[in-house]
Automatic annotation (TrEMBL):
A Pfam family: CBS
Transmembrane segments: 6-31, 52-77, 97-119
Keywords carried by this UniProt record: CBS domain, Cell membrane, Membrane, Transmembrane, Transmembrane helix
Residue ranges of every copy of the CBS domain listed in the record: 280-337
Span of domain CNNM transmembrane: 1-202
Protein name (Swiss-Prot/TrEMBL): Hemolysin, contains CBS domains
Bilayer disposition of the protein: Multi-pass membrane protein
Localization, UniProt: Cell membrane
PANTHER family from the UniProt entry: HLYC_CORC FAMILY TRANSPORTER, UPF0053 PROTEIN YRKA
C-alpha cells in the first residue's frame, strides 16, 4: 500500500474505530445506571446503553476485540507504509542503507504509536469519563450492531475468560456494582463536613441516619422505673386522667407486671363511660433492647405500631415511640414536634 491518500484514509479510519471502542468501554463503566434508566423512557439509544450495561462482560470483550484488531491493522498497514516513505529520505541525507532502514522503522513506529495512543485511546477515554451518560447513549446503537454481528465470537471469548477467572477463584460478574457501603458514606460525609462543602446541620442529620445501622434500641431508650400504664379494668375516664397526668398519649395496659397491650387516649374519647382499657387496647409490640434501630423501625412499620416496649432479659427497661427515633434522626424536627 504505497498511495499516501489510501494510507491516510485507512489510518484515520482505524484510529477513529479504535477511539470508538475505547470510548464505549469507558463510557459504559462510568455511566450511572439510574441516569440511563431515567432517559430510557424517551431514548432508544439509552435503552440500548442499558442493554449493554446489563451484559458488560460481553461488551468489554467486543471493545477489546475491536481495539486489538485496529492495533494490528495499523501495524500491518500504516507502519510499513510510513517506514517505506522514510527510508529513502534518510538515504538521500547520506545515511547508510542499514541505518536509513533502522531509523525509518523506529520513526514510523513512534509516529504510529503516538497517533494510536493519544488520538485513538487517551483522548476518547478522557471524553467518555468526563461525559459518561452522553457518550454511552451516543455510541450505544452502533456498538449494539457490532455486538450483534460478532456475538458468537464474543460469547466464546467471554466464556473462555470466565473459565480462567474461575480457575483462580474469582467469580465473574456481568454488571458494575453501584452504590456505597455505610462506611464509605460515613467517610464521605465526614470529609465533606471537614472541607466545608457540607452544612453542619445536614452533617448531623446524615451522621444520625448512618448510625441507624449499628444503633440499638437499648442505646436510645430512656430507662423508666415505672412506665406510664393503666390496669385492664381502668375505665375511659381513668385512661384520660392518666394521660393528662403523665403527658403520654399511649399507655401500657398492665396486670401483675405483665404487659397485655397498649391503649391510645384517642380511643377513650368516644368510648362509653364504662368501657375498660382491656376493650380498647391493641396488642403490644415488645422488642429486645439489643435489636438494631433499623430493624425495629421495619417491624413498627409492618405492624403499624408507634410504640415499642423495650425489654432486656425479660424485664421492661422503657418505652420508645416512633417520634423518639425521628427525634434522634432529625433533632430539630423532633424538638419542634
Amino acid at each position: 500500500m504505497s498511495s499516501p491518500v489510501v494510507v491516510a484514509v485507512v489510518t484515520i479510519g482505524l484510529i477513529a474505530a479504535s477511539a470508538f471502542f475505547v470510548a464505549v468501554e469507558f463510557a459504559l463503566i462510568a455511566a450511572r445506571r439510574h441516569r440511563l434508566e431515567d432517559a430510557a423512557a424517551s431514548s432508544r439509544s439509552a435503552r440500548a446503553a442499558l442493554r449493554s450495561a446489563s451484559e458488560l462482560s460481553v461488551l468489554l470483550a467486543g471493545s477489546q476485540l475491536g481495539i486489538t484488531v485496529c492495533t494490528l491493522a495499523l501495524g500491518a498497514t500504516t507502519k510499513p507504509a510510513v517506514h517505506h516513505w522514510l527510508t529513502p529520505l534518510f538515504e538521500n541525507w547520506g545515511a547508510p542503507l542499514w541505518l536509513a532502514d533502522v531509523a525509518g522503522f523506529v520513526l514510523a513506529l513512534i509516529i504510529v504509536t503516538f497517533l494510536h495512543l493519544v488520538v485513538g485511546e487517551m483522548a476518547p477515554k478522557s471524553w467518555a469519563i468526563a461525559h459518561p451518560e452522553k457518550s454511552a447513549t451516543m455510541l450505544a446503537l452502533p456498538m449494539r450492531a457490532f455486538m450483534w454481528v460478532t456475538r458468537p465470537l464474543l460469547v466464546r471469548l467471554n466464556h473462555m475468560a470466565n473459565w480462567c477467572l474461575r480457575k483462580v477463584g474469582v467469580d465473574p460478574v456481568d454488571q458494575v456494582a453501584e452504590g456505597q457501603d455505610p462506611d464509605a458514606l460515613r467517610h464521605l460525609v465526614e470529609h465533606s463536613a471537614t472541607v466545608g462543602t457540607l452544612d453542619e446541620r445536614y452533617h448531623g442529620h446524615l451522621s444520625s441516619a448512618l448510625e441507624l445501622e449499628t444503633l440499638t434500641l437499648g442505646e436510645i431508650v430512656t430507662p423508666q422505673a415505672e412506665p406510664s400504664s393503666v390496669k385492664p379494668t381502668s375505665t375511659a375516664d381513668e385512661i384520660r386522667e392518666t394521660a393528662h397526668r403523665t403527658g403520654h398519649l399511649r399507655l401500657l395496659v398492665r396486670a401483675d407486671g405483665h404487659v397485655d397491650g397498649v391503649v391510645h387516649v384517642r380511643d377513650s374519647l368516644q368510648a362509653a363511660p364504662g368501657t375498660t382499657a382491656a376493650e380498647l387496647m391493641r396488642p403490644a409490640l415488645t422488642i429486645d433492647a439489643a435489636t438494631p434501630v433499623y430493624e425495629a423501625l421495619t417491624t413498627m412499620r409492618e405492624t403499624r405500631n408507634h410504640l415499642v416496649t423495650v425489654t432486656e432479659n425479660g424485664r421492661i427497661v422503657g418505652l420508645i415511640a416512633l417520634s423518639d427515633v425521628l427525634a434522634r434522626l432529625l433533632p430539630m424536627s423532633g424538638a419542634a414536634s
